[in-house]
Amino acid sequence: MIANAKRGTIFTLAITVVEAAAICGRNTAHLLFDALQGAYDGHMERAQMRLAPVKSRSWRDIPRAGAEDCYRHRCCA
Predict the structure, then answer these.
(1) Which domain holds residue 30?
(2) Tell me, what DSSP letter sits at residue 34?
(3) What is the pLDDT along the chain (77 residues), one digit of tens a residue?
């Protein structure tokens, strides 16, 4: 009976080590997935910005504050 008593503690220790390794592996996988997801999101954002149409604007294209009222009154007058 004494020889079998150690068997239970070794088995329990082995289970504990396997559970700890599984938890550590899962946490590492989550960190790796988060890093890959961030890299993919950054890549897609840059790709979308490259494909976005860019309209160059001159200072003449930007309306000044109150400019619409002045033009409206000039048209009516």
Answers:
(1) 22-50
(2) H
(3) 455 556 678 889 999 999 999 999 999 999 999 999 999 999 999 988 888 776 766 666 666 665 565 555 555 55
d(CA 74, CA 77): 5
In a domain, 45, yes or no: yes
- Predicted TM-score (pTM) of this structure: 0.49
Q: Is 34 within a domain?
A: yes
Query: How many Å apart are CA 47 and CA 56, to the nearest integer?
Result: 19
Asked if the structure places residue 71 within a domain, the reply is no
Q: Please give the biggest Cα pair distance in the chain.
A: 112
Q: Look at residue 11 and tell me if it is in a domain.
A: no
What tokens were used for 41? Answer: 């999101």
- How many domains does the structure of the chain reveal? 1
Q: How far apart are CA 45 and CA 39, in angstroms?
A: 10
